[in-house]
Amino acid sequence: MELGLLYSGGKDSTLAALVLDQFYDVTLTTAHFGITDDWKHARDTAEAAGFAFERLELEPDVAREAADRIREDGYPRNGIQLVHHHALERLATEGFDAVGDGTRRDDRVPTVSRAQAQSLEDRHGVDYVAPLSGFGRRAVDRLVEDALEVTAGPSEEIPRADYEAELRAFIAEEDGPEAIREYFPDHEQTYVTDVADGLR
After folding, report:
1. Residues 135, 104 contacting (CB under 8 angstroms)
2. Which residue of 12, 22, 64, 179 has the smallest Cβ count within 10 Å?
3. CA distance 50 to 58
4. pLDDT of 13-36, one tens digit each?
5. 116 in a domain, yes or no?
């Protein structure tokens, strides 16, 4: 069965791909707006891990709506959530039998509720899978330690193909770089540079 996994090149989505690879023909799919070329890092990580890779370009109106929501809220959570749900909806129309993501049990954003997952499945005739949804951050970190080579650092310095990076760039372009500090708290991000031998 073919599965499209929303992919940032970070540890969670890479670990999710390795778990799902036992059961599906996984294609790592980076959803983006074409604002940055950070998707290339996800492509390189997918290649290092031995997975097929695709880009899924999202509509610019979604970036604008998400940015407006971030400005209105004063924080990024709901804007990122909006983009994640849109990306899953789009991915579900790309001909896959199943779609998924690397969300964990204790993630604050993005999340997919049970009702949202069932609605996605019913409307598009796909399965939605989130293989890390039973794992907390500490459990994921322990698994990652043995399976992945990871680079970590402040979110402004780590090249990742995720919605936050593109929304940061979108808002900076419209409102100036100082707006980033106003709306986006700095936090640690990761990207995967290699996968342990035997897991590819």
Report:
1. yes
2. 22
3. 25
4. 999 999 999 999 999 999 999 998
5. yes
Establish if 44 belongs to a structural domain: yes
What's the CATH code of the domain at 151? 3.40.50.620
> pLDDT digit string (tens) for 103-145?
999 999 999 999 999 999 999 999 999 999 999 999 999 999 9
On whether residue 39 sits in a domain, the answer given is: yes
Of 100, 128, 103, nearest in space to 5 by CA: 100
pTM: 0.93
Indicate the SS3 state at residue 184.
Answer: coil
Question: What distances in angstroms separate CA 56 from CA 31, 114, 199, one per listed residue?
Answer: 5, 24, 26
What type of residue sits at position 74? G
Which has the closest alpha carbon to 107: 71, 129, 134? 134
Which residue has tokens 């370009």? 57
Residue 200 lies in a domain: no
The number of folded domains in the chain is 1
